[in-house]
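Sequence in, structure out. Go.
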Amino acid sequence: MKGPCMHFRAPLLALALAATALPAGGWAQTTGTEAPATAAPSERAQRAAQDIVLGSEDAPLTIVEYASFTCSHCGAFHRDVFPTLKAEYIDTGKVRFIQRDVYFDAVGLWAGILARCEPEKFYAVGGMVMDEQADWLKPDSSGEALADSLRKIGLRAGMDADAIQACWDDRSFVEALVGAYQTNAEADKIDATPSFIIGGEKVPNQSWDSMKTLIDAKLAETAFLGGQHPAFGDCIFGTLLYRYFTLDFDRAETPHLRAYYDRLCARSAYARHAMVSYESMRAK
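Output:
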């Protein structure tokens, strides 16, 4: 699962994709030296730049994933890791998750248009596209065959065939999606997929154990600094009491005192780490 799919340059690819031919019925590739006329923004285009959130809006930690629907490592993350992330952190209200698309090829753009055609179905459709990469994304398939496979995924997700084609035909929507991708990728300095922004920190693709450790540390830090942790006040009291008896007066630690401290601070790992660091500093 580890490692990126590829590195890319968002501005150049965005310009190239803006003139990419879409599946049957979509607007044709532009020729000549003049830039294509900009279509009047549709209702879809006006919402294209809006993030689609999975999880509670009040979750203490936000994770943003930059992913391409044609990236094998992105597919592996969604098949092997995302279900655990969702069950343990998103569904429990700890994490607010946002997926942002990266378009470094035409087929990935087609898939992104399909997934974002109906926002309420984005994670369902996008999940199917990722999970079934091995079935629909075959290197020897024609563009028509790939588009047909994507269309079938949309139909199985409850989308209407005419609605799917309408989204592929909506030039202003396509241009807005490519523009949003370019703006976000440049702002966050994304150069490979998948990439993650966890609590404001950009991190590369990595094992689930490493990511889980980082998520837990970010949650503990957020709780400590924000004073929102349910055990925050009790843990601060326990820390002061512990320091008073064992450090400030050089008294020996007792099992009862340590057990009392552990009970108060068991759910505040960040606060406990800060206290242990203080002990080490005072002991020198």
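Check: The chain has 14 helices and five strands. The longest helix spans residues 208-226.
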